[in-house]
Amino acid sequence: KISKFKSEGNEKIHVLSDFDRTMTTWILPNGEKMPSLISRIRNGPYLGKEYSDKANKLYDYYHPIEIDNKLSIKEKKKLMHEWWFKHFELLGESGLNKKVIQKVAEDLIDGEKINLRNGVRKFLNKLEKNKIPLVIISSSVGDLIEEFLKKENLMKENVFVIANKLDYDFGGRFIGVKEIVHVF
Question: What is the pTM of this model?
Answer without folding.
Answer: 0.76
